[in-house]
Automatic annotation (TrEMBL):
Protein name: Glycerol-3-phosphate dehydrogenase [NAD(P)+]
Residues engaged in binding NAD(+): A124, R239
GO molecular function, one term: NAD binding
Positions contributing to NADPH binding: R15, R16, Y32, K89, A124, R239, E265
Keywords: Cytoplasm, Lipid biosynthesis, Lipid metabolism, NAD, NADP, Nucleotide-binding, Oxidoreductase, Phospholipid biosynthesis, Phospholipid metabolism, Signal
EC number: 1.1.1.94
Top-level taxon of the source organism: Bacteria
Function: Catalyzes the reduction of the glycolytic intermediate dihydroxyacetone phosphate (DHAP) to sn-glycerol 3-phosphate (G3P), the key precursor for phospholipid synthesis.
Upper taxonomic lineage: Bacteria, Bacillati, Bacillota, Bacilli, Bacillales
Residues at the catalytic site: K175
Length: 336
C-alpha cells in the first residue's frame, strides 16, 4: 500500500488463486486487512515468474520459516539482478543466521544487486490505515539503503537509514521473544510494573547478545530496538503478544499456534536465541525461561518465580570492552 501510494505499480505474489482474484478484481484482502480498500495500482498473481519479470526491486515478506522454500524458487526464476528488501523478523535455529544472510546464501550473486532490511514499529493493520509510522532501512550497501528510503518514504511512512544491519535484524527478531513474555505476563493477570520490567530487562539481554554479535548498542535504543519492542509488547495487533496472552491464560502452545493460523515468529526465535546465548556465553534469563515454558512445558508462573528469585545483581553492566570497537566502526562509517 505504501509503495502503491508512492506511485509504483505493485505486483503481489500469492499462492492462493482466490486471493489473487480478490486483490486484483475487488481491490480488497479481507482475511489479512479487513475493511481496507487497496489502491488501483496493486495486482496479484500466483505465477511468481509473471510477478518478478522485469522488476528491479522485490519486497520479501513471507514468514522466516518459509525462506528456505521461497528463495530457491525465486533464484531459479530470476532473469536479471534485483535488490531484495526484506521485512521478515526472525533468526533461523541451528544455522543461527539472520534473514539477510539466508538471502545471500540462497540467491546467486549474479541475481542479487543488494539486500536491504526494512524494520521498525509497524503493524500492517495501522500502516494500511495510513497512520503515522516510522521505520528504519539498513544494508551493507549504503546506496541501496538510501534508494530503499526513497522508495518507501511519504507523509505517513517516515523512513530512517541505519548502517548497522546486525543490530537492526537482531532487534527486530528478538523483540518477539519479549512480546511473547509480555503476553504471558498479561495473561497471568500481572500488571504494568511486570510488563515494564520484562521490556526493560528484555532490552538489556537483547543488547548484551547484540553486542557479542557485532551490533552497535545505540541501534537498540532506536526504532528497531526499543521502538519495535514497545509496539509489540503493548499492542493487541501483535501475534506474538496474543500467543503469549493465551499461554498465560493456560492454553498449550500447539493449540495456540494452530488457532492463530498466522506467523508467531517469536517461538522459533526463542529457540535460535537460546542457542546463540549458549554459543556466545551470554546471560539471557528471560529468553531462557521462555524457552522452558515453550519447549519444556514449564508452568509460566514458575518461570516468573524463578526470574524474580535469581541472584541479586547490578542493573547497568560495563560493556565498554564489548562495544568499543563497534562504536568506533560506526563513527568511521558515519564520517565517510
Ligand atoms: N504483520 C505485521 O504487521 C508485520 C509482520 N512482519 C514480519 O513479516 C513476516 C510475515 O508476517 P505476517 O505477514 O504478519 O504473517 P501472516 O501469517 O499474517 O502472513 C504470512 C503470509 O505468508 C504466506 N506464506 C506462508 N508460508 C509461505 C510459503 N512457504 N510460501 C509462500 N507464502 C507463504 C501465508 O500464506 C500468508 O499469506 C514475519 O516475519 C513478521 O515478523 C514485520 C512487520 C510487521
Ligand atoms: O513486528 C511487528 C510490528 O512491528 C508485528 O509483530 P507481530 O508479528 O507480533 O504481529
Amino acid at each position: 500500500i505504501v509503495l502503491a501510494d508512492n506511485g509504483y505499480n505493485v505486483s503481489v505474489w500469492t499462492r492462493r488463486p482466490e486471493q489473487a482474484l480478490e486483490i486484483t478484481g475487488q481491490k480488497t484482502n479481507k482475511k489479512y486487512l479487513p475493511g481496507i480498500n487497496l489502491p488501483e495500482n496493486i495486482t496479484a498473481n500466483t505465477k511468481m515468474e509473471d510477478v518478478i519479470n522485469g522488476v528491479d526491486t522485490i519486497v520479501l515478506v513471507t514468514p522466516t520459516l518459509s525462506m528456505r522454500e521461497v528463495l530457491p524458487k525465486l533464484n531459479e526464476k530470476l532473469q536479471n539482478p534485483v535488490t531484495i528488501i526484506h521485512a521478515s523478523k526472525g533468526i533461523e535455529p541451528d544455522s543461527l543466521k539472520r534473514i539477510s544472510e539466508i538471502i545471500e546464501e540462497e540467491v546467486e550473486e549474479k541475481h542479487l544487486k543488494s539486500v536491504v532490511v526494512l524494520s521498525g514499529p509497524s503493524h500492517a493493520e495501522e500502516v494500511s490505515l495510513r497512520q503515522p509510522t516510522t521505520v528504519t532501512v539498513s544494508s551493507k550497501d549504503k546506496q541501496a539503503c538510501e534508494d530503499a528510503q526513497d522508495l518507501f518514504i511519504n507523509n505517513y511512512f517516515r523512513v530512517y537509514t541505519n548502517q548497522d544491519i546486525i543490530g537492526v535484524e537482531i532487534g527486530g527478531a528478538l523483540k518477539n521473544i519479549i512480546a511473547l513474555g509480555a503476553g504471558i505476563s498479561d495473561g497471568l493477570g500481572h500488571g504494568d510494573n511486570s510488563k515494564a520490567a520484562l521490556m526493560t530487562r528484555g532490552l538489556a539481554e537483547i543488547t548484551r547478545l547484540g553486542g557479542q554479535l557485532g551490533a552497535n548498542p545505540l541501534t537498540f535504543a532506536g526504532l528497531t530496538g526499543i521502538g519495535d519492542l514497545i509496539v509489540t509488547c503493548t499492542s493487541t495487533h501483535s501475534r506474538n503478544w496474543r500467543a503469549g496472552y493465551a499461554i498465560g491464560q493456560g492454553k498449550k502452545l500447539d493449540e495456540v499456534l494452530s488457532g492463530m493460523g498466522m506467523a508467531v515468529e517469536g517461538v522459533r526465535t526463542t529457540l535460535a536465541a537460546s542457542q546463540l546465548a549458549e554459543r556466545y556465553g551470554v546471560s539471557m534469563p528471560i529468553t531462557s525461561e521462555l524457552y522452558k515454558v515453550l519447549f519444556k512445558n514449564k508452568n509460566p508462573k514458575h518461570a516468573v518465580d524463578d526470574l524474580m528469585k535469581r541472584d541479586r545483581t547490578h542493573e547497568v553492566e560495563d560493556l565498554t570492552s564489548v562495544f568499543a570497537t563497534q562504536l568506533m566502526d560506526q563513527s568511521k562509517e558515519n564520517n565517510q
